Amino acid sequence: EPEVTQTPSHQVTQMGQEVILRCVPISNHLYFYWYRQILGQKVEFLVSFYNNEISEKSEIFDDQFSVERPDGSNFTLKIRSTKLEDSAMYFCAVGQGSFHTFGSGTRLTVV
Amino acid sequence: DQQVKQNSPSLSVQEGRISILNCDYTNSMFDYFLWYKKYPAEGPTFLISISSIKDKNEDGRFTVFLNKSAKHLSLHIVPSQPGDSAVYFCAASAGGTSYGKLTFGQGTILTVHP
Question: Does the distance separating the beta carbons of A45 and B100 come in below 8 Å?
């Protein structure tokens, strides 16, 4: 069983719609991260989350993005109003320090 | 933002030979370096890492070398196997407030031919 499970594996959404990407770590972790990879480009850091609050975020993570850990197990990434350029693979990761374990990702396609 | 660069988009190697993947960085604050392997439709999988206080770390067929003065690291795979065919990402981390945040290179596609 994977240590980090992401759902859905693929999400297609209309431009302007809200999407919620979900991540469920198997074991207890303190640090949570979201990264994304636009097709053909590098994996980019979006946000880190520790002790139920954002510890760091990148320039990509603007007001359209939010993260939360609503029930102590799920970790979600919400995009309020999707744009075409949000189409990418989104990876959740858990970690201790620099060592990250990644989920298999959610492919978001904005049409 | 090109703080971590992998200048070779692809590498093709014969089975049994050595694969050498290279990575350069510019940020002097980076103190921990990792290599991840990625298959299509999967997330990156941790392979091997090295702290900036070391210049070499070995794990089975995989060895990572760090040259701090040149801001360069490399991953050696010996002997290469067809199952090693994947995309390899170099990543770096700085301490302090960026604790844990990884900065990735563009990746190198490794193909190992039988």
Answer: no
